[in-house]
């Protein structure tokens, strides 16, 4: 196992690169005191960066950034690992001044990615004879974004957006289908987890790339099956669609699912969802599948700290090693937080999910 002290030294020596309005600012990067970049599966990634705001400027000593020539509202703000790997890309939405006791003044930049446009646009609208993919593309176009979406699902007679922000509405539609929503640059993306996390997983070894980790396998939130009920308007008949462990497919690999352990160690627990009100069998089945997957993926949840890598992004797969037969294996990153400060340097906190538990040796 690698020595923890050497890892910490490497982290303290690392410092992110900053770009404002397309230009690299080495002086700004050297004055960085703290950094926090937060990514979740809900989209709308955000960044907070705190800088020292007192020093020599134009032959005098005073505030460095209050003239807003460098840091100003609406300016593109990027954080990179080195010169190529982007950790965050967004626009400045807030400036916070700090005047601590017995310390120099600071300025904190608050930035959000392009989903901020959708969060700040609220509307009431209806979409007729449209799939969810159609709606995603339509709303992306209204915000000047290119759409790259792979969202399976039925065509709906009508979808209603009632006094909701565009972001809240799209999040709701993606949850109904088990899809994840995010933006890269000016491209709105929505994909199922399996499609988003294709490719070889990034390997993180305990005591090396993975500095610390705590993981919990919990049956409390698991169900043997999920049934979604509704009413088929065209057929004038009741709808009842069920989803179980089979919808996990290859995601489970050779592990044991929470539903299987629940049935064998406690008892079968079935759940009925009656508030969704689907109007067709395909819509009800999609909701049942998505609801079951969402619960199943929270069976094994780990939280830890790793050495920062640009590949550690929400949606990525990682292979964690050195955790024993139950918990070693492939995980999906559901939340990522890149952090920097003068004491510990650059590191990444993560939340990783897994649908199954490894076999006991």
Automatic annotation (TrEMBL):
It comes from the Bacteria. This is Phage late control D family protein. It comes from Myxococcus llanfairpwllgwyngyllgogerychwyrndrobwllllantysiliogogogochensis.
